[in-house]
Amino acid sequence: MPATTAIHFFLELAVILGACRLVGLLARRVGQPQVVGEMIAGVLLGPSLLGRIAPGIQHHLFPPGQSNTVLYTMAQIGLVLYMFLIGLNFDANLIKHRAGTAVAVSAAGIFAPLALGSLLAMPLLARGIYFDKSVTLVMAMMFLGASIATTAFPMLARIIFEQRLSGTPLGTLALACGAADDALSWCLLAVVLAIHRGNPALAATAIIGGILYSVLLVTIGRKALTVLGTIPERRKTITAPVLSTVLILLMACAWFTDTIGIYAIFGAFILGVAMPSGFFAQELTTRLEPLVTTFLLPLFFVYSGLNTQIGLLNSPALWAVTLGILVVSIAGKGVACTVAARLNKVPLRESIALGSLMNARGLIELILLNIGLQAGIITPTLFTILVLVAIVTTLMATPIFEFVYGRHRVDEPSVPPEHATTPTEG
């Protein structure tokens, strides 16, 4: 019954929000972003911990079926709103100043993971327990490469703000590289999904449609959307009609990009980039961010946690595979980006700091993995392994950054606060 589902969902929400807040606070105590704690809380509430120590309670709280469908839908709404906020506060002009280095580091962050992922995919596919039986070698190579290549772009934006790097050479370079690598990773995923569905036209639709959507929105769309910024600027507030118009556009863009095969969060991010900056962006972020980051986004981490079953890694061989994928992931992303930056004459400390930031996978990899699991490309075993890789590489980012760069840095001039990246959890 719908009423019974709703009543139960309220209980789920209370438990999820309480657990994420508690573990998030503990994470902040040890110098980690709130989002790291929320990632861990999601795993703890799933079958990996709560399902082991209190299976009855875990099954009662998160039963399969319609309750999970509601949780999934709410989580997707949270992701769309969150990625819209990231786009809203992304200053594309910052990329122009270090374009050459950004291209080199981004290329290293894509091609090295693809090469190493391809090598890993061959033995993993042969084992038969990591990918669905319908997955070909090329698909396995591309999916694993895309998984290793992702960067936690939202978390990257948060660290850059907290470390007062907005508008600095390092902050600019990190944002540019993170955005480029994630865009390419989503293109790879679109190709894998199209091949998996047996329709190459889907890949062409996704990539060409995504390019046209992006170009039109940041050119013609940006000019058309300026009217949304003039009204709040004049009235010094965002009115209800303006806010509802923004939300209608956001849901329409999310629907469109999801329909053509590149997923709702891509459409949300590009719409955010095309929106007017300045007062409008600041005011809209102030309105939406608290609800999104404290209420909706934690739902996604718990939904991912429900699909993460650490108990599946029940042999030394599986843990060895996990360790191997972790090492390859660090080498393919963190080390490769560090070397590329150094070869482009970025100072050593900055190069290592950049590599540590690029190596964090966080929320973005969880999104990609959930898509792969839902589409039947990867098995729960590989899903669990890659979730652990995402958590560990995200945990590594802040301590390494602080050790090699943060405590040694001399404050650099940055852009004025009104042009800086707004703080966002993730």
UniProtKB/TrEMBL annotation:
Q: Which domain of life is it from?
A: Bacteria
Transmembrane ranges, per UniProt, are 6-27, 39-57, 69-90, 102-125, 137-161, 173-195, 201-225, 237-257, 263-281, 288-306, 318-341, 362-379, 385-405
Q: Gene3D superfamilies under this entry?
A: 1.20.1530.20
One Pfam family, please name it: Na_H_Exchanger
Subcellular location(s) of the protein: Membrane
Signal peptide location in the record? none
UniProt keywords (A-Z) are: Ion transport, Membrane, Transmembrane, Transmembrane helix, Transport
Record's protein name: Potassium transporter
Q: Which organism is it from?
A: Mycobacterium gordonae
Source taxonomy: Bacteria, Bacillati, Actinomycetota, Actinomycetes, Mycobacteriales
